[in-house]
Specification:
By secondary structure, this protein is mostly helical. The protein has helices at residues 4-18, 29-48, 50-59, 61-96, 103-109, 130-183, 191-201, 203-251, 254-268, 272-354. The model is unreliable at 254-271 (pLDDT under 50).
Length: 355
């Protein structure tokens, strides 16, 4: 049987042989291409509807500028994040191939793979500990979730700004309508003058309605665009995490730990009889657990049957009481009927005697 040192040497040789073939097969190019195609389609639609979009934008230029700025910031953040994933993927592939130039500089600016600096002194000298691999994956997962939280906040912010513009415009509309109604003077004026003043007064409420609907339209459109980009970025991050997990799992020492455990057990001096006893105990343990579960189930079944019997006894007692009550009522009704019959016969006999 191979001891731990022999297995470690074989594991190291295997990793050294396969080091050049290990790669992080991730590229943000497909996701960036999808995003750029989507943005081109949106830009084409905006160019077609430019006049209407311009009119809607001018109803409330301040708030609409803020909405568009937030949307552009979100788009730039998504694209920057995807480019960062591609850059870190390329560096990790260089690290796996043995090219670790500018490693310290990369660790300082890395957003997701900064914990991999711990691998510099380990890989490829020996397999990676599982605890280290799990810590790296947890760190990467938390950082990816943080970036997605930022995008989701921006999506919600766009919806909020659209609703804010809607209520802002509605408030202006209600205030303007109130002013128009109060300014109308129908006494002593011609109908043409009244209609002219009403026409001039309604321009402000209509402007408020335009401000409300334009801000709502831009806010919802921006949230839709940024939501689609968030979807593509989420897919890219999921792909990046999966590829990183697969690559690190190939460098981990799962089989190494199993073999080390076996060699340590053999070095302690376990006899063949002791191993047989352990095997028998491992076979008996499931049976004992099964018997215990069966006993628990039978006990629960007995309690359920006992409760059912109690309920049946209660129902039988209630049925008996109901039968007794019905029997007493039927007896009283029979007595009442007999009395009525006797009274009827008595009246008939008295009538016959009188005749």
């Amino acid at each position: 049987m191979k001891n731990s040192s022999q297995f470690t040497q074989e594991k190291n040789e295997e990793i050294l042989e396969n080091r050049g073939s290990l790669r992080l097969f991730f590229s943000p190019a497909p996701f960036l291409l999808t995003i750029f195609l989507f943005l081109i389609i949106v830009s084409f639609l905006v160019a077609i509807l430019f006049r209407r979009v311009q009119v809607a934008f001018m109803h409330n230029p301040g708030l609409n500028t803020l909405i568009i700025s937030v949307m552009l910031i979100g788009i730039l953040l998504v694209i920057s994040n995807l480019l960062s994933l591609g850059k870190e993927s390329r560096w990790f592939n260089n690290f796996l191939s043995g090219n670790v130039r500018y490693a310290d500089r990369f660790f300082l600016v890395s957003k997701f793979l900064s914990p991999t600096r711990l691998l510099v002194g380990i890989y490829p000298k020996k397999p990676l500990p599982l605890v280290l691999v799990r810590n790296i994956l947890d760190f990467v997962s938390s950082r990816l979730d943080e970036t997605r939280d930022t995008w989701r906040y921006l999506v919600g912010l766009l919806v909020f700004l659209g609703l804010l513009g809607t209520f802002w415009g509605l408030i202006d509309t209600i205030t303007s309508i109130n002013s128009v109604i109060q300014s109308l003077d129908v006494g002593g004026h011609d109908s043409a003058d009244i209609l002219s003043s009403l026409k001039q007064g309604l321009s402000a409420p209509l402007s408020g309605m335009g401000s409300a609907f334009s801000s709502s339209l831009l806010g919802l459109s921006g949230s839709l665009i940024l939501g689609f980009l968030d979807l593509q970025a989420g897919r890219a991050q999921g792909r990046f995490y999966t590829e990183l997990e697969n690559t690190l799992s190939q460098l981990s020492d799962v089989s190494f730990e199993k073999n080390t455990l076996n060699t340590e057990m053999s070095s302690i001096g376990f006899s063949e009889e002791m191993r047989r006893i352990i095997e028998l105990l491992s076979q008996v343990a499931p049976d004992a657990v099964g018997q215990q579960r069966s006993a628990t189930a039978m006990s629960a079944l007995a309690e359920g049957v006992q409760a059912l019997v109690k309920n049946m006894r209660k129902e039988q007692q209630m049925l008996r009481n109901w039968v007794e009550v019905q029997r007493d009522e039927s007896r009283s009704m029979c007595r009442m009927i007999e009395r009525l019959i006797e009274q009827r016969h008595g009246k008939d006999n008295n009538g016959i005697r009188g005749e």
